[in-house]
Amino acid sequence: MGRFTGLDIFWAVAFLLLMVGGAAFFWRLARRSESDFFLAGRGLPWWLPAASVFSTHTATDTPVWITGVIYANGLRGLWYTFFTAWTAIGAFVSARIFRRSLAYTQAEWQTQRFGGLGAELLRGWMAGWQVFMNMFILGWVGIAMGKVCALAFGWPVWVGLVVPSVITALYTLAAGYWGVVMGDFLQGIVAVFAIVLVSLVGVAAAGGPAEVTGRIVALGQEWRLDAFDFTGWVSGDFPVVWWLTMLVIAVLGGFGMGTSIDWYVEAQRIQSARSVRDATYGIWAGGAVTLVRNGFWAAGILAFFAMVPGIADQADYELGWFRLGFELLPAGLVGVFFGAILAIHLSTISSHLNLGALYFTRDIYQRYIRPDASEQRLVWMGRAATFVLLVGSFFYGLMMEEITRWLIFALWLMMAGIWLPNILQVVWWRFNAWGYLAGWMANLGVSWLVVWILPAFGVIPKLPDHLNFWLLMALGALIFIPVTLRTKPEGMDRLVRYYVMTRPIGWWGPVHREAVRRGLLAGTADVRDEGPRPLIRRAWTAEQADAWTREDWLVVVLSPLVMAGLMLGVTKALLLQPGGVLILVTAVAGMFLIYWIIDPKLRAVSREYESQQAGYVAELEQRLRWRDGKDA
Fold it and tell me: Whole-prediction pTM value?
């Protein structure tokens, strides 16, 4: 299918050299310390983490998957992609809390929130799980690149799996997270350009927006143009219950940590931001641009359907977006398009190489093997771990055809039982390490029973995924809630220290009162306004900004609506559907309203916290060695 000319080859190679050279330029910064190699020294302005969030969310397999769900389900398929909306709430809740914790990883955060043997078991388990999962994802994305190269050039699949990943590893090994994030910035620009270009070219090739919608209507497929064309409350391919379940998983998941597989990657972006404010805007903007991207993709894929309807083989129609680019773009732009494919591939590969190495270096090697390791030794260990992850990913990629269904099972259904614990550990002071461990262990067993074993023996019928989610969550709760209540809460010293540092949302009343009693926080009377409180506060003291107030809840409500409006508005506007421009303009206005409401508060939170951050970092490094459960 590839029609590469000399000009195309020039642009593809030029981009590759620019991207690799630009990222590798930062190797001197990466070698300074563990913080530089894995977090870029915690000094990035919001737009760099935002670009990295978008680039990491855009992998080689992403257009394949999104093409599949849009081609099969029409605009309803956009809701399959809406899981990114965890950033709508997460940016203003869990990202704020996690950034203040200063934990390098989710695994390290467990030993701040919890204590003793339970916390160490959690940290070790989560670190090992993430090393494995990052290697697994590298293989998954790598084999997708192998298939694209086979489509474009007729290469053996293993060539596309190995060669681009090796190129990525070169600058990731040298420049660490500095190379990752600067590469993501360059790659993101190229990816956005190509996604917009190919989608617009696809719509134009189909005869324009009116012709696209007209052809679909003429085929008797008008339902494809309606994102809310439900097939019933509980029946059919797109029931209301499925849609509500997806919204709950994605949107409410933003109150927790680890409720989405993407959380673990974005946690690194949160900690690399230079302030709480930058972390918040980085996560929000990255998620919003990702959903806008989905809107552009949807318009192009509907145009592809209008031109080539009725493809029955899923493997064929999933390549629809790649076909638009390779078959419709003129000479020269095909090379740019392939450069964009390289961009979305290399950004994801570099992110997961560095992230997997971070979990091994920080949470296994430094925590349990060499707590006194020098900064230089930790950097070299990070590079060694990066190399091992790369090699391991090749083995996973080559056997991915046989284990795809197990990956989906592991990523989604096996996570259902810990979705609620991932929220409870953030919002409920009484939830402890043993309850969280019980949730993990119960989920590992119950998910196998419900999804595979019991249906195989006819004990229960095979349930759709959305019903499996609710059943697994309920069964898990019957185990982890009693375990939590029958075991001791975490020590009050630990909880107070964690609370004062991170100021979590939710049911933390006893801990807050103890912190006030100890003189660590101001009492309620000390932070009240002297006069009537304005409806939307625009001037904040540090004590007022640390509290969760109506401004936070307003943006929590508005943010998912704005993100949904951006996603749907872009597609409808491109197809000139009624109300499309209005939805898009309203969503953009809502975005500025969110900024107007929350920005003064975020500035006050960031100023106060930054004045204390150096002390918190020093304390964090001193607590690296586990003291047999006596770390209060």
Answer: 0.92
